[in-house]
Amino acid sequence: MKTRETAPTQPMTLAFDVTVSSIQDLSPNFRRITFGGYSLRDFGVSGDTLDLRIKLMVPSLDNAGQQIPLPAFNMNQSGWYQAWLALDPARRGSMRTYTVRGSRLDSVYPEIDVDFVMHFDAPGHVNQNSGPAATWAQHARPGDALTIIGPNNRAAQCRTAETYGGIEWRPGLAERVLLAGDETAVPAISAILESLPSYMSGHAFLEVPEAGDFQDLKTAADVDITWLPRGAAIGRSRPHGELLQHAVRAAVPVPGWVGIKAADGGAGPEPENVNVDRDILWETPARMETAAIGASRNPALPAGAMPFYAWIAGEAAVIKDIRRYLVRDVGIDRKQVAFMGYWRQGKAEG
Ligand SMILES: Cc1cc2nc3c(=O)[nH]c(=O)nc-3n(C[C@H](O)[C@H](O)[C@H](O)COP(=O)(O)OP(=O)(O)OC[C@H]3O[C@@H](n4cnc5c(N)ncnc54)[C@H](O)[C@@H]3O)c2cc1C
Asked: Which CATH number do you get for residue 83?
């Protein structure tokens, strides 16, 4: 945790040049890469990092699997993103979203940990369609350089998780929580669980490729943690999201009166359709506050004043189905749930 003088004119985010300090294979499908650099002294929010997201500017690889160094580029100037997009796509690298799983920012040499899901289609065999970030992680070596875009801890707005846009976990006054996600959400759910106070209770469901990917998670809260392994054997693996959907349905059942009353079978409104092949599914209480999407069943109740809060992230089509179930069938107020499509099957980010 940092305590610093704040300057309101500081930018919210900064680009941080870092190098790989170490690489650790946590399990068959998770690789932890630790990034270090003195620039990280200016990185971070003042509280727990929770589900803090960052952008990684990942170098491209040439035909021999060698990294093409990122072009010299000032990502701290305004309008940098459009200028970066205009560069040669084969050389400028790719921008991808990841979670800060851990950090040691007060150390002499500050570091952050990022847990990469490896895109294997069989144990140890990288998927032919694996994207640049997972492929980069597969080839990474200590000393490799990369740029991270993340929160500037000198910016006044970054001083709490409640006010920094890169953190979605906002349970408000809720004491009962539901966390559900696939492997890409494991880093965020793990960091959130570590931060929870003992008075919180609920469930956490984590769907992962196989039982070897279970991790020993720590929490002071009374939250039941359930790992859901799809199964590694080729042809015997459960479809992505199936176990997660069943788990959420069992934990949050449809109210008993729904079948009696509603001819159309729903306790709440039909949520707006999101075409996950074209659009990003990202519906969180924070975004609803600013976008005023409406459709709240109880608009008089301020967001954050409810006893139950859910945080759900993973493959977009799976999250869309869970959203429809919770909003329409169960009738949960959308101010109580963050629904986040972290990636899309068959689609590259960006
Ligand atoms: C807020 C946020 C936080 C995230 N945190 C993490 C994190 O901490 N760790 C992490 O590993 N991921 C995380 N993700 C997901 C990650 O950004 C995506 O998986 C991303 O697509 C990976 O980039 P890529 O270059 O490897 O693949 P892309 O170029 O984006 O995609 C190439 C192909 O790979 C497929 N693909 C992408 N992701 C997966 C996957 N997980 N499994 C199988 N196929 C896949 C795509 O469908 C596509 O066909 C996060 C996403 C968001 C939005």
From this structure: 2.40.30.10
